[in-house]
Amino acid sequence: MLAIALLTLTGLLAGALNAVAGGGTFLSFPALVWLGVPPVMANATATLTAMPGYVGSAWAFRRELQAEGALGLRAILGVSALGGLVGAGLLLVTPGEAFTGIVPWLLLAATLLFAAGPRLLAAIRARGQGGVGPLPAALALCAVAVYGGYFNGGLGIMLLAVLGLVGFTDLHAMNGLKNLLSALLSVISVATFASAGLIAWDKALVLAAATAVGGYAGAHLARRIRRTGPLRLAIVAVGAAMTVAFFLA
């Protein structure tokens, strides 16, 4: 009962955070580890529980989807799918002990990316038209997709940054494609992880249901929040605390 209560509370909070400002992974992943789920399986399970939110967000932005810059939409999706497969495959061959050592650094990177998010977006808006050529754009996108297939934390900010590098300037189109790519990467990762038996289904079902409810409530809450700065600071503080805890574990 304690595990169910913790998963329910974590899912509600993670779903609401993802809807309002992002950062739900900082709660769902550590909660699974603390409940005894091995880190590799916890990462796979957290990715599964985030997937419904990504799919729903991608559908909500379906009218804004369009290609800009160096790569067409099909190329972006193809490169991202390839990178996601590589990243998920890398997780499958990473020994549990090695992944335990990598996790604090991944959480640190995700926390720093989340903290830098507003400045990255401001830089993207200020950059104006342009972008790199097709090959550098494809390589950068593939690298981010590999990261997303391997670990979910901080993926949204990384995708927005690389889309700005590709040549996107319309923030609505960037958000729509970011959600679509997040959904694509999570589907690929979850299918790979499930085939390898890395999903803790008993905990995933509770966490996914609570995350969906939290995301729905968070979407309504987001419309009433005028300033997300204090909330972002609180999420960064949680991410920093989780990072320190995993470094000391």
UniProtKB/TrEMBL annotation:
The keyword Transport applies. It is a multi-pass membrane protein. One of its GO terms (cellular component) is plasma membrane. It is found in: Cell membrane. The chain crosses the membrane at residues 42-61, 73-93, 105-124, 180-199, 205-222, 229-248. Keywords: Cell membrane, Membrane, Plasmid, Transmembrane, Transmembrane helix, Transport. PANTHER family: MEMBRANE TRANSPORTER PROTEIN YFCA-RELATED (PTHR30269:SF0), TRANSMEMBRANE PROTEIN YFCA (PTHR30269). Belongs to the 4-toluene sulfonate uptake permease (TSUP) (TC 2.A.102) family. This is Probable membrane transporter protein. The lineage of its organism: Bacteria, Pseudomonadati, Pseudomonadota, Alphaproteobacteria, Rhodobacterales.
